[in-house]
Structure formats: structure tokens, C-alpha cells
User: Fold these one by one.
Assistant:
Number 1:
Amino acid sequence: MESTSMNKLMVAGYMFIRRDDHPNIRIKYRKQDSGDWKTFEKFETKVARDRRIKELLDYDKIIME
């Protein structure tokens, strides 16, 4: 998604998440008040991270980037 569209959705209250494996297994997020991608949560395994992502995507205002 292009940054202009992402910015419009963030202004409307949406938060974007994405997977990251380096330097550790984590979920990163971006929302209007943070601007840049930041660590949302760290995990010991990719399976645990992916399970948490599935839970987060049940929320209406969280979108996978």
C-alpha cells in the first residue's frame, strides 16, 4: 500500500502491523502518533508470533501491511 493511503487510514484510527524476524522475532506496528515502525511485541518463536497476529487481526482497526 502506498504511504498516502496508509496515512489516510492512520488518521482514521487504523494501526498497521507486520512480521519481522531480524534482529529478533517480533511484531512491528505503525499508527498515526508513532509515525515510524516500532516494536509492538517480541516472541521466542515464529509460531507464537503468528498466533498473536491472528488474534490482533480480529480487531476492526488493525490491518496487516
Number 2:
Amino acid sequence: MEYDEFLFSQLFMSYVENNDTIYQHLEYDLIFEEILICYENYKSSIYYLGFKSEYGCIKDYLNNEIQLI
């Protein structure tokens, strides 16, 4: 696992644990696949920028693209 994948997964889980999302009640074996899908979506999104911190880009993606219930 690369650092950017690790950072994304940690920030994703933190976001899910602290917000009402469709992912909040998924079991770990099911949420793993969702993290991978969201990470690939993030990498091809407008939030994946080279001039901003990786942390900031991921936070922007999560705040704008992960649907709240």
C-alpha cells in the first residue's frame, strides 16, 4: 500500500465514522471494496490536484462527493 492509498483510507474511515453516510453501517469486509472504488474515483476527479496538499485534496473530495443520508 502506498502512502496516498493509506491516507485516503484513513480519512475515508474517519469521515464515515463522523458523518451519516451510506457507508456508516457497512461491515469491514464490505467497506474495503467501497474504499477502493472511491479512491479510484478520487484519482480521476477534479479534487486530485498537484498543487495542493494530498490531505486537503482528499478532504475536499470526501466533503463534496460522499453523500450524506
Number 3:
Amino acid sequence: MSKIKFYRQCVLEKETSRQTSYIPETYAIKDQVLQLKENEVWEDGWKVIKVGPKVTADYVESNERNYLKTRKASDI
């Protein structure tokens, strides 16, 4: 039997930037400073400022690219 993995939606802040991301539950600790990988480059200094409820990894992974369809769905 496999163990279910969870993610939490967190608000992360670095200098003057802020973003919301789903991160693995083990790293979703308020005030923890993390590294984030974007475009194959790791960036230091992202601080977790808010932690949301947990969701399953299956949910996050199956919906991670929904933003690509937002404009198509909203332009009528």
C-alpha cells in the first residue's frame, strides 16, 4: 500500500515579490525559508508567510496546468 502525499497551498514572499504555490506538506511551515526551482534554476530566500489547507498530490498534479486554459474559457 502506498502512502498518500499531500501538498499545501502557501503564500511565499521574497524581497518585493509574492506568489502562491502548492508545495509539499513537509516544507509548508510558516516562517520557513525555502529554495524554489523555476526554469531549472534554484532561487534562495522564499519565506512561507501563510499556509493553507492540505490537498492530495493527485489533485495538485492533475490540475497544475489549468491556468493555460483560463483565457480560452473566459473569452466568450
Number 4:
Amino acid sequence: MNTRNIEILVGAFVVLAVIAMVMLSLKVSNLASYGDDGDAYEIQAQFDNIGGLKERSPVSAGGVRVGKVSAISYNNKEFTAVVTLQIEGGYEFPVDTSASILTAGLLGEQYVGLDPGGDEENLVAGGEIDITQSALVLEQVIGQFLYSKAQEE
């Protein structure tokens, strides 16, 4: 092989490596959306504290990703965080479904976990989840533990 062919192969390899790194970074940051959101529907849930939840965080039910967080806003009248969940069209949840903000691992990213209820009527686009559990903030738990230990002495 001559030098020119080797240079072309090395250049092609570098281009493929750059494309792979871009795809990996998009996937890790949840910016890449491979699914079609055309048949997705949005529902809302209000939380007292969302911790470190971010837009594009996963929404899962039973360990299966069923959607993503599409928007986060603040309700000035009820002083709560309003989280808009975009659920993929193939998934349906009863109206008495509960939503919790959970953490993947001990210090991992936060996501919304849905726990389906038993009602026969399903949530529809624009619906709201009434039963919610806020994020567990590690600093608050440690503070409460230290305060209770100080009270014992």
C-alpha cells in the first residue's frame, strides 16, 4: 500500500470516530430522540420539590422507559413545581396513577417513576396526576438525622 491509501484510511477512521463521539454524547445527554413523538401525549404532575430533575429526564414505569420530562415550570398560586410528562403513544395509565421522583443509583440522575393504579379510566392528553411524591433530597435527610441525634443528647 502506498502512503496516500494509508492517509485516506486514517482520515476515514478519524471521521467515523468523531461521528461516534458525537452520537455518544447526544445519547448520554438525552438530546438525541430516536423515537417518533408524533403519537405522544402530555400529562402534568405537581411536586413540592423536584430536586435535580431536568427537562428530557426519563419517565419510566416498571423499569421501562415510557416517556420523558418535556417541561418544568412553577405554579405561583400553589407554590409547587409543575412537571409536564410526554408519554409515548403506546402506553396508557389509569387516572389514579402515582408519580414519584426517583434517583438512579445512590447519586445518579433523577427520573420520574410512574406507579399505575387500578382505575378503569385512563389518563388522556392534558390530564393531571394527583398523587405525587417529591424528590428525596440527600442534604435534607442528613440534616434531619443530625438534628434528631442532637436532640437525643
